[in-house]
Amino acid sequence: MKKLLLTAALASALSACSDSDEPGGSPASNTDAPVLDTLKAQGLTIHGPLDVPGGLDAFAASVGTQALAVYVMPDSGYALIGTLIDEAGNPVADEELRRIVSEPIEQGAWDSLEAAGWVGDGRPDAERIVYVFTDANCPFCNQLWTSARPWVEAGRVQLRHVMVGVIRADSASKAAAILEAEDPEAALAFNEVHHSEGGIAPLETISDESNVQLNANVELMRQLGFSGTPGLIAKSDDGSLRFQSGVPRGAALEELFGPL
User: Where is the signal peptide (predicted)?
Assistant: First the structure.
């Protein structure tokens, strides 16, 4: 892209050349810089000025759920995306980025997941809640369901399956069969136990309500940066969100679900 350097290394090198004795930054003045419009057109969201030392005009930004710092050069025609460090090698913008970008995005994401069309799997009062974007035809979702049994059956974890239909032509119809079942949790379990035999029978007709719900779930999945299933979201001990694409295994599974 013309006049745009997307490199963390250059951003770090630039910070080493700045006045590290300067106690603080000032609000960014290049709020109308053309290069910011270029970044927005490429999918970045600019959340506002970022207060950093060194005399740089900085902005808090994001792509999906990833927080980014954008540094605009004095002529407004160039920008760097990366990590600004002090003379000791410590990042100086992380705390502000978390406050301005990550915390609001993660809270909004969690609220959206709670309001989504999900199917519970496990005790509602479980110690940990894990949301999972699940396709009824997904073999990896089936692996995850099986791997999670010890945590679910011990009451440690409740999986909340946000049903989507993205893998095969009948995925949405199978998801609707689960959502519209008299007991959705039992219907989900039937699908997973009998997955190798084809799982649950797809509905011939999806209700308008399920269709709206499934479309909204797919949109949410994409907004949160997942391009396939399973996609998992859980809260860490410090309240921040963990995003996991694919099936976690071994230590990664315990890190996500917690100890048994």
Answer: 1-18
| Residue among 229, 259, 220 at smallest CA distance from 247 | 229
Separation in Å, CA 55 to CA 37, 47, 246? 22, 19, 42
Determine contact, residues 144/98, Cβ cutoff 8 Å.
no
Map residue 233 onto helix, strand or coil: strand
Q: Is residue 47 classed as helix, strand or coil in its secondary structure?
A: strand
Query: What is the pTM for the complete model shown?
Result: 0.80
Tens of pLDDT, residue by residue over 64-76, are 889 999 999 888 7
- In 3D space, the residue among 38, 20, 24, 18 whose CA is nearest the CA of residue 81 turns out to be 38
Sheet with 45-50, edge to edge strand ranges: 45-50, 57-63, 66-72, 79-81
What span, in angstroms and rounded, lies between the C-alpha atoms of 199 and 137? 8
Interval 184-217: pLDDT, tens:
999 999 999 999 999 999 999 999 999 999 999 9
